[in-house]
Design goal:
The complex is a heterodimer of chains A (210) and B (229). Chain A has 210 residues and is of the alpha/beta class. Chain A is 55% helix and 11% strand. In chain A, strand 3, helix 7 and strand 4 form a beta-alpha-beta unit. Chain B has 7 helices and 9 strands. In chain B, helix 2 crosses helix 5 and helix 4 runs antiparallel to helix 5. Classes of the chains: A alpha/beta (210), B alpha+beta (229). Chains A and B meet through helix 4 and helix 5 of A and helix 4 and helix 5 of B. The structure holds cobalamin (B12) and iron/sulfur cluster. Cobalamin (B12) sits at the interface of chains A and B.
Chain lengths: 210, 229
């Protein structure tokens, strides 16, 4: 039975996965174990994505299935078994840029993968990032941008974080249309992520869970 | 300055798939295909597309390695255009948009946690604005054909040799207000699903395919959306 959920989720069979979860819950199965299987299924999804068997839409679809599964299991989790959020992430599209869909996809994938994401929105001034980091104590910051115009804004955001004395307390990742490792160096960020999965992997690495 | 509206757009699932990174024979989940079909129908029903094109043709008065001068003391800067359109007698500046309604719906989907819908609808919007381009080119080509002139393929600010800062210049050369397109202080086109471009017009103009553009693009190795073949 346990194996079924892992593979059903990995094969992105939404209805079947939901049925399995419902059956296991009514059979009194440990909700923590169900979530553990779901996590294993998502790991396979990530692997298939990195091997180009799956694409971004498949990834987002897996996230939507995982979210339904989590909603079903959540009420059965007791305080002790309730899975803790993996870590906090402050995320936004930098000042001067108003593109949201790329950011929204990464935010969604971080959220369903267990991160507490504080999404600031688009066209976010550097100072707003600084304030949110202070307020939440988040150790991870994600900066999104679409055009080359975003490069300087990203650099200014990283500098503002530094000026506020927070640079050694946070890891900064950047991503979006024109970003690259070269731009990562220019902006002073810690890493560049080429897609939503890369964002999740970086966040997991930095929180020590992946 | 001419403005065209009511441009019929027939959006193909295949083209929408490419903008999801699912071009070139990628295995597509039936759920994704049916969501695309559903969203294409809803785009029509809710009239989310308000396609509009503004353009203007200018006579070339002179050119050097870094700019093309146009009639009326106007100029387009950057080395790209003089390098690829040395034979141009005229340039047409073109601005295309699908209006703000579709992207508002994308944002609403994302905000309500319907990320998949938002993402696919966003791709539909990109497909739609891309499809306006050949329509505009066809129209301009038929206008200039009576003088035995040809039209080139388009180039956009943001391409190497054609700086993004030229967006301000281009918007001043067409009737951008009339089709509701403007630039943010940082230079992003609003509505987001808009594009600006320049084509060369003359007796013999160069044309290229989308695949040829991709083959020369610096992002080709990693780009999920490239056109091949
Ligand atoms: C589709 C597209 C368009 C569409 C839609 C634009 C839109 N965003 O709505 C249209 C046709 C309208 C368009 C217009 C323009 N575009 Co355009 N466009 C693209 C294209 C092909 C894909 C972008 C896209 O929508 N991707 C889908 C989304 C979901 O992906 P994404 O935002 O990149 O996000 C993903 C990842 O990047 C990542 N990610 C995003 N943020 C973050 C953050 C972190 C921390 C991490 C880890 C990951 C991450 O995760 C997301 C999901 O996997 C790119 C090329 C490319 N390969 O990126 C060019 C591209 C971005 N465009 C470009 C240009 C030049 C333009 C124009 C300026 C052209 C013009 N003169 O009109 C205009 C500007 C429009 C404007 N509003 O100002 C250039 C940019 C060059 C530059 N100098 O900046 C590019 C790179 C193409 C090129 N090679 O020249 N564009
Ligand atoms: S390879 Fe370059 S030109 Fe082709 S779609 Fe990707 S970004 Fe655009």
């Amino acid at each position: 039975m346990a194996k079924d959920l892992v593979n059903t989720l990995a094969d992105l069979k939404e209805q079947e996965a939901i049925e399995i979860v419902k059956d296991r819950l009514s059979a009194g199965d440990d909700p923590f174990k169900i979530m553990e299987d779901a996590r294993k299924g998502m790991e396979i999804v990530g692997k298939r994505f990195s091997e180009s068997e799956y694409f971004i839409p498949d990834l987002v679809y897996s996230g939507e299935i995982l979210r339904v599964v989590t909603e079903l299991v959540k009420p059965k989790l007791t305080k002790t078994t309730e899975s803790k959020k993996l870590g906090k992430v402050v995320f936004g599209t930098v000042a001067g840029d108003i593109h949201d869909i790329g950011k929204d996809i990464v935010v969604f994938m971080l959220d369903v993968n267990g991160f507490e994401v504080h999404d600031l929105g688009v066209d976010i001034p550097a100072q707003k990032f600084v304030e949110k980091i202070k307020e939440t104590g988040a150790p991870i910051v994600g900066l999104s941008g679409f055009l080359t115009l975003a490069f300087d804004s990203m650099k200014e955001t990283v500098e503002a974080i530094k000026a506020a004395g927070l640079r050694d307390k946070v890891k900064v990742m950047i991503g979006g249309g024109q970003m690259s490792d070269e731009i990562k160096n220019y902006t002073g960020a810690d890493a560049y992520g080429k897609d939503a999965m890369a964002g999740v992997s970086l966040a997991k690495k930095w929180t020590g869970v992946g | 300055m001419p403005v065209i509206r009511d441009i019929p757009l027939s959006l193909k699932t295949r083209e929408v798939l490419r903008r999801q990174g699912l071009g070139g024979g990628a295995k597509v989940r039936p759920e994704i295909k049916s969501l695309i079909r559903e969203l294409l129908a809803s785009v029509k029903k809710a009239r989310l597309l308000e396609p509009a094109v503004a353009y203007e043709c200018y006579t070339v008065s002179s050119m050097n390695g870094s700019q093309i001068s146009l009639e009326g003391d106007k100029a387009i800067h950057g080395p790209l255009i003089p390098a690829i359109f040395p034979e141009a007698k005229k340039l047409a500046i073109i601005l295309c948009t699908i209006g703000p309604r579709l992207e508002k719906q994308v944002t609403d989907y994302s905000k309500s946690g319907e990320t998949m819908r938002g993402m696919i609808l966003d791709g539909i919007g990109s497909t739609a604005v891309d499809m306006l381009v050949p329509e505009a080119l066809r129209l301009i080509a038929s206008e200039v054909s009576s003088r035995d002139y040809e039209t080139s393929s388009p180039v956009n600010p943001g391409m190497p040799g054609f700086p993004l800062t030229e967006q301000w210049n281009l918007l001043g050369l067409v009737n951008a207000d009339e089709i509701g397109v403007s630039l943010t202080a940082s230079g992003v086109l609003v509505p987001r699903k808009s594009t600006s471009m320049v084509i060369g017009i003359g007796p013999k103009m160069t044309r290229w395919t989308e695949a040829e553009v991709c083959a020369r693009c610096s992002l080709r190795e990693t780009c999920h959306y490239k056109v091949t073949g």
